[in-house]
Amino acid sequence: MKALKTLVASAVLAMSTGAFAATVLPGSETSLQTIINNAYGGSGASPVSAAPNVNTDQAGAELFQIEASGGSIATMILEIAGNANINTFGIYDPYNTATQLQLFSGSASSGAQVAITVDASNQFKAVDLTNGGILGNMLFTSSTFGYYLSGPGGTFFSQASQNGGNEQMVSYRGDGDTVQFPGRAVGVWGPSSYLLGWEDTSLTGGSDKDYNDMVVYVESVTKVPEPGSLALLGLGLSGLAFASRRKQKNAK
């Protein structure tokens, strides 16, 4: 019984914090901490001291669902990678990672915005809010999706498990601070919005681990657990229920 409780606790912990935690280094370019800090401290914005710490305040988000409105907006904050003109960014189906819907091409720049919608049949659509036009439609297995970054270094996914266990993306969740991102008005960074910082070189292939190669703000999304975590939790809860019934039976 004690072992089962430990199993359930481990599953809940994995879902709430993510299976891995990345160490973000300053690097030789504008650091991710500086990029985040720059959204604070201005007129009407929360003080810089309220900014999340890039190493201790990670949200551990890997998979997402769009909230009840069925729409989400992704905003390019900054891209300073050497592959900035080549890298692409989008969403993918975690049950079939080959199913991908591109949101930003290599020509995207700071301030670019794309709207993502999903209908009852799990059909996702991407609309370019900066230049106009529909970027694409893609049918997913479910309403759950992840984000990907693709370039010369390979295609990396928000799920560490899809990168051989490597965290190529770090995430930070809003908590009500008032911030200002490049080209945007001062506004609230709420709990249904995340800042995603990416590393476009494999962590096992010479990465500088600064996670500033692409930084994207996504809103109106909810963090969801990985399918494996759900299965583990379900197994643990089933075991607890069985053990409880057995204990009651033996007590009679």
Q: What's the helix and strand layout?
A:
Elements: H1 2-17, H2 32-37, E1 63-66, E2 71-78, E3 88-93, E4 96-104, E5 113-118, E6 123-128, E7 134-139, E8 146-151, E9 154-157, E10 169-173, E11 177-179, E12 187-189, E13 194-198, E14 214-219, E15 221-224, H3 227-251
Antiparallel strand pairs: 1-15, 2-5, 2-14, 3-4, 3-8, 5-6, 6-7, 8-9, 10-13, 11-12, 13-14
Keywords: Signal
Pfam families: DUF4114, PEP-CTERM
Domain DUF4114: 131-220
Features:
disordered N terminus; 15 strands; single chain; globular; 19% helix; DUF4114; seven-stranded antiparallel beta sheet; alpha+beta; 252 residues; 3 helices; four-stranded antiparallel beta sheet
SSE-based structural type: alpha+beta
General form: globular
Order of helices and strands: HHEEEEEEEEEEEEEEEH
Please state the CA-atom Rg, rounded to the nearest Å. 20 Å
- Helix percent reads 10-25%
Physical arrangement of strands within the biggest beta sheet: 7-6-5-2-14-13-10
Low-confidence stretches: 1-19, 229-249
Counting copies of identical and different chains, the oligomeric state is single chain
N- to C-terminal distance? 19 Å
Organism: Alicycliphilus denitrificans
Pfam family, one: PEP-CTERM
Domain DUF4114: 131-220
Keywords: Signal
